[in-house]
Amino acid sequence: MSDWIQQQFVLEWPNVWGARNWIVPACLLGGSVFLLVMWAYRSIEASLGLKLCCAACKSLAVLLLAAMLVEPMRSESKPVPGANLFAVVADRSQSLQVADLNETVTRADKLKEQLDRSIPWQVRLGQEFDIRRYEFAQQLVPVGDFQSYTADGNASAVVNSLTSVAQRYADRPIAGILLFTDGNATDLANANIDWSNYPPIFPVMLGSEDTASDIGVQRVTASQTNFEAAPVTIAAEIEGKGFAGQSVVVELLDEKGESLQTQTVTDIRDDQAFSVRFQVKPTQRGVLFYQVRAYAQSQQGLFEDASKSNESTLLNNSRMVMVNRGQGPYNVLYVSGRPNWEFKFLNRSLAEDDEVELHGLIRIAKKEPKFQFRDKDSNANRIFTNTDDEKKEQVEQYDEAVLLRVGKLEEGELAGGFPKSAEELFEYHAIILDDLEADFFTQQQQSLVQQFVSMRGGGLLMLGGMESFVEGDYHRSPIGELLPIYLSGIKQQPQQQEFALALTREGLLEPWVRVRTTQEEEQQRLVEMPKLRSLNAVGTIKPGASELLSVQTSQGENRPALVTQRFGKGRTGALLVGDLWRWKLHQASPDNEDLEKAWRQTIRWLVGEVPQRVRVEAVRLLDDPNHPVEIAVEVNDENFRPLDNASVTIEVTTPSGETLTLTAEPKDAISGQYAASYVPRTSGAYRAKVIARNPDGSEIKQTETGWVSEPAGDEFFTLKPNREFLETIARESGGEMISLSGLDAFVRTLANRDIPVVEPKIHSVWHTWAVFLLAVGLLVLEWGLRRWKGLA
């Protein structure tokens, strides 16, 4: 308001003199009259104050009239009527359907009253500007008027709407944008918008920060871990207003709407968010959906009967979340130099894990030198001596190791022993080597193992034993280079003394290394563990590796027991203990499942980040007003190199059960990357089955993903207007915040603002009623004072 008064005051002063040649006569005349008036009042008998007041009034009036001889004029720039554009943009999202505290009408009703073309501020605005009217929800829509305005949109694309207006009139003279909105944009993904490149924006904030009663589930997230059967943690953030001191019930429901878990949060506070966590162990695989909903305990049953609710809206009381349990099964190849207890307990631990399949390759007899002298006619391995299989052709020969294949193997799998090609080895996600010397592998196989970790991204874990690490001659071998510890060429037998495991500082920070819930319980578990007696001697750990478990020798020396590191795309680990099985055999309680849990968590860590041949991710593009979902697919060949010319089809199942087929196209000219976009039209859970095929048409793999579309939840994320956002765009664009009641005053000041197309306007100051009235008023005041005091 102070700026407006200042502008009006400046307009009263002339800045152009039309008759400069009259300046000297006007000054002489004015001076003469002034002197004459002063001489005349000097001779009058009256008080000094009265004479000065009367003389001043008459002198000012005469001087003002004398100044008219110079023809004072005011030159200023005025907008050319109709030459400048002015955009009126109205938000029609459904978040305006709420009523504020102590209000009987909604925000949308208040706005509609101001959008009538016959209202004074619109009439005045139309006299000077070419008005362009728009409505927006998901996108900007031009309208002739706002007669059919309804707040029923599922989104508030504030940023994209303003950008569309700015781009549409980038080469046209636009004086500003009048924006009616609550500021709760659903497309505010980019926080670094340069609003200075936009026309002046004048936001009119709808709604009050003092909102009515409401409970809203703001966000729901799901996280999975790679340990203990991968429980799913579902976290919900909830905020309430108008229910201070009351209790809120939070429910977790499955896809069928059946309640799984319920929690009650007591004594909540207004405008203060609180979190609720649920832990579930899904029994099904694939893409699953869960729903979290919250309501006041005093209003139980409001979802069945909305009349029981006194909330502003129920559209934000629930949210869904997607959980993908379809990454497995993970194939783990266990290779051992001899049957042992370690495999027994490892196999037993993973038997109950549907996500991990353990395939064992166990050597039960070593091979003999190829040219060793033999005193028998049979060429079979000695393990078959004096058996019925000795003379069979399919049995292993004396120069071949005898291997036992264990697990759910397909026909022909591992028939030739350890894989000899990348195509065969890369079918696995992790390799475990136990008590096996380096000579078991050919040089080509060792190089394949290195490629398996570095290129394929697989996991490698070597267990301690009599023929592992240094004792297995892995020094300066391709497999030895993968290990997170340095090996020397000097063999030492595993140390036969008692050791106690201890968690290092880094080990305490790794969830998969811990077995118990708290640090105190974990320390107690380590104290109760049976002592171990077999530890491989190695050198120092490599730079970048992490020592997670350690032991202390009888000499007081700390030695590493479990070390891990990243290698290329994969990860490797070295468990230097060779008799972890003692943990199970010598524990106090036979019902103790700590060893099984530890093995499951270790294997989960080993395979947790191993890439699949076909990877898919569904991402919502928040910067697009329609919020499409981009389904990005990465396809690799058998050697896990990006595969070009693949065929990728996507079958999308909508919440109504309808199935649509999309074709993914190459993405951004990146090898092996494909993508397709889909715009959800209805609320609910979506599933997408991705089928990738080789260039010859053969199927590579099928995988699933999913997403949730909840435009109402995004719209009603908060009921408070986003004043900070609106003030930012107004300040940075050169505009200002306007109130609904201040629209008339705002429109009157537009002519005095920075307008693109203006024309000069010159008017005589004498022709303004204010100047004439001032001159006459001074003379009347002087005459009135004289008459009052009897001086006339």
Task: Give an account of the 3D structure.
- Strand 23 and strand 24 (558-567) form a beta hairpin.
- 36% of the residues are buried.
- The chain is built from 18 helices and 34 strands.
- The longest helix has 21 residues, at 769-789.
- Helix content is 23%, strand content 29%.
- It is an alpha+beta fold.
- It starts with a helix and ends with a helix.
- Strands 17-16-15-18-19-25-24-23-21 form a 9-stranded mixed β-sheet, sandwiched between helices. A 5-stranded mixed β-sheet has the order 5-4-3-6-7. A 4-stranded antiparallel β-sheet has the order 11-10-13-14, with no helix packed on it.
- Helix 2 (23-42) runs antiparallel to helix 3, helix 5 runs parallel beside helix 17 (743-749) and helix 7 crosses helix 14.
- The chain has 6 domains: 2-79 and 759-789, no CATH class; 85-211 and 719-756, Rossmann fold (3-Layer(aba) Sandwich); 214-322, Immunoglobulin-like, CATH 2.60.40.10; 330-366 and 401-607, Class I glutamine amidotransferase (GATase) domain (Rossmann fold, 3-Layer(aba) Sandwich), CATH 3.40.50.880; 367-399, no CATH class; 614-715, Immunoglobulins (Immunoglobulin-like).
- It comes from Bremerella cremea.
- Keywords: Membrane, Transmembrane, Transmembrane helix.
- This is Putative glutamine amidotransferase domain-containing protein.
- The chain crosses the membrane at residues 22-41, 48-70, 766-785.
- Residues 413-607 form the Putative glutamine amidotransferase domain.
